[in-house]
Amino acid sequence: MLSGKTTWAALMSGLALTACASTGSTDTPTTTPAASASAFPSTYVRREYRPVLIRGATVFDGAGAEFANTDVMFENGRITGVGQNLTAPAGAEIIDGAGKFVTPGIIDAHSHLGDYPSPGIQANSDGNEVTQPNTAEVWAEHSVWPQDPGFQRAVAGGITALHILPGSANLFGGRGTTLRPVLGVATMQQMKFPNAPQSLKMACGENPSRVYGTRNQSPATDMGNVAGWRQAFARATEYNRNLERSRNRPANGGDAPRAPDRDLELDTLAGVLRGEIRVQWHCYRANEMAIGLDIAEEFDFEVAAFHHAVEAYKIADLLAEHGTCAAMWADWWGFKMEAYDGIRENIPFVDAAENGCAIVHSDSAVGIQRLNQEAAKAMADGRRAGLEITRAHAWTWLSRNPARALGIEEETGTLTVGKAADVVVWSADPLSSYAVAERVYMDGALAHERGASRLPPSDFELGQTAWSTGQ
User: Fold this and answer.
1) Percent of the chain with pLDDT over 70
2) Is 428 exposed, middle or buried (0-12, 13-18, 19+ CB in 10 A)?
3) CA 145 – CA 20 distance, rounded (Å)
4) What DSSP element (H or E) covers 69?
């Protein structure tokens, strides 16, 4: 069997400031782009639950290690122990883990739940603001419908966090947000993952050029896409510069400019340039991802991850060099020209590059329910190509790596003492199609128990029944 890191070269051989002036206001505004960080704050509250000790299971720690006959213990929402012969706290829930597997909760880095909820009808299609190529001012969280039945199904599949993104019709689709799929809440703010950074959804390739080219608008080509991104970041650079100058404005005014008028679109782009908002970039082709990295260098920001990234295997070393992850499907490709040159080994080949960061994502209300099986397919394809991939390492594609791309790796993604107790108990090897999530703990509280009903079902789960007054 070949080594995953040392044979990368062998496996891959043969594959291949224009600024515009800002309008000045007469007074320094009381709000600045920094205010966006505190707008619509999370009101998520961890649900209280007794201590839990899972005894004698096979454990994937999310960091790439597997442990046999091992205990996992958590209390007050935090992992407190991973080892053998742990002592349960008073009043703990004891679970016999013999024959079972324990993993960190799955994190889906690319979801549209709540924005494209079930039932999937036009009235519920709230994920794409298809009105202009740059809609960086919109936020995906403002379309989230918390009662989407898809959230419940995702939790049953082992999901404990997910990143909600706008659609990909535009060069700049808007801000994304990380949620906990909390059931039975009324507002999206009750689901917002505390202190998780927002993202900016960008899109390259066929989607924006097709949508706007057919309207005789720009962009209509790849070069129009690139020009649109660069012009927007040039404007954001000047916006940031004028904000900084205005902060140093002396009391008598002097020569320093007044603060620019508040611009929600530029707030988002400026937040990217300041490193406050992470770029999540929909992009299929290798050459377009490489140009995206060049643009990031030109304007001095980082790309957290390219999404879908069907040709990421061609530039795996380049992605690793920039510290950029690739969030990919196991085997979904070929449905349009830019997705045509896909291979089943895409995920493991990206992972095999030195310091590579591979992520399994869904982009699907159905796929999110079985991401463990998607990781299993990618692992099997990599093994057939000669890569040594352990099942515990494959789990990093589902928990640690997406946590890194979303900026929540200090809080979740691995079964590390002190981190949030996002824990799944599986009936069997979770990389088997026969395994089901028996118990899902989110932040230390039981969120799903197979066969049990702990929350009232959604109206769309029940359907409609005849109403009667009883008269």
Assistant:
1) 86
2) middle
3) 38
4) strand 66-75
CA distances from 414 to 63, 161, 278, 401 (A): 6, 13, 21, 10
Q: Is the dihedral of CA 460, 465, 469, 470 positive or negative?
A: negative
Report the sign of the C-alpha dihedral through residues 372, 378, 383, 384, in that order: positive
d(CA 114, CA 159): 15
Number of H helices and number of E strands within the chain?
12, 16
Q: Quick one: DSSP state of residue 225?
A: H
Q: Which helix (H) or strand (E) holds 203?
A: strand 199-203
pLDDT mean over 101-113? 98
129, 138 contact by CB (below 8 A): yes
Q: Could you give the C-alpha distances from 339 to 69, 133, 304, 333, 412, in angstroms and in order? A: 43, 22, 21, 5, 32
**Which string of DSSP letters, residue by residue, matches 92-161?**
PEEEE-TT-EEEEPEEEEEE-TTTSPSS--GGG--S--TTSSB-TT-BGGGG--TT-HHHHHHHHTTEEE
Can you tell me the distance from the alpha carbon of 276 to that of 274, in angstroms, rounded to the nearest whole number? Answer: 6
Residue given tokens 């400031």 in the structure block:
17
d(CA 355, CA 192): 30
Domains annotated for the chain, with CATH where assigned, are 8-36+106-412 (3.20.20.140)
Residue 375 carries which side chain, given as an amino acid letter? A
Rounded distance between C-alpha atoms, residue 105 and residue 81, angstroms? 16
Global pTM value: 0.90
> H/E element holding 351?
helix 346-352
- Please give the Cα distance from 349 to 359 (Å, whole number): 12
Phi, psi torsion values for 128, nearest 5 degrees: -125, 115
Neighbours of 306 (CB within 10 A): 32
Give the integer Cα–Cα distance in Å for 305 and 303.
Answer: 6
Please state, in angstroms and rounded to a whole number, the distance separating the CA atoms of residues 360 and 106: 10
Peptide bond into 89 cis (omega under 30): no
Segment (H or E) for 287: helix 286-298
Kindly tell me the burial class for residue 370, based on how many C-beta atoms sit within 10 Å of its own C-beta (0-12, 13-18, 19 or more).
middle
DSSP tag of 313: G
CA 343 → CA 195, 313, 325, 382, 440, distances in Å?
A: 37, 8, 18, 11, 33
239, pLDDT greater than 70:
yes
- Low-confidence winner among 10-14, 112-116, 194-198, 294-298 (lowest mean pLDDT): 10-14
What is the C-alpha to C-alpha distance for residues 277 and 309, in angstroms, rounded to an integer?
A: 21
What are 288-319's pLDDT values in tens digits?
A: 999 999 999 999 999 999 999 999 999 999 99
Is it the case that residue 225 has pLDDT exceeding 70? yes
